[in-house]
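Title: Comparing notes on inverse folding

I've been comparing how different people in this forum approach sequence design from structure. To keep things fair, I'm posting one structure and asking everyone to reply with a full sequence. Here's the target:
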């Protein structure tokens, strides 16, 4: 069941959430994905809007996501080193308030 006054189906969001988060703080450290894609304001706004849903925000630990990503893929990262950055503030305004549920 979706949440009232939301444009998304909550179960669909939960299923897609790992893909959304994985592409932000973890994969940016890999050479082939070394650009933090903030130049897509709609996508970054969407990610921030989803993160700011209380039921989602309370379950997201970005450090643990990054730690798992780098520690469990030893063929990609044989040293298991977990990089520090980037620091992403998901609490910034998402700029999507003008979008309304129809």
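Reply #1:
Here's my take.
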């Amino acid at each position: 069941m979706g949440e009232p006054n939301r444009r998304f189906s909550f179960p669909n969001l939960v299923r897609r959430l790992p893909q959304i988060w994985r592409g932000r703080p973890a994969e940016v450290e890999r050479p082939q994905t070394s650009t933090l894609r903030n130049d897509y304001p709609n996508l970054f706004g969407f990610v921030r809007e989803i993160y700011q849903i209380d039921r989602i925000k309370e379950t997201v630990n970005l450090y643990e996501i990054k730690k798992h990503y780098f520690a469990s893929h030893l063929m990609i990262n044989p040293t298991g080193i977990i990089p520090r950055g980037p620091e992403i503030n998901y609490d910034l305004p998402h700029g999507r308030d003008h979008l309304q549920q129809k």
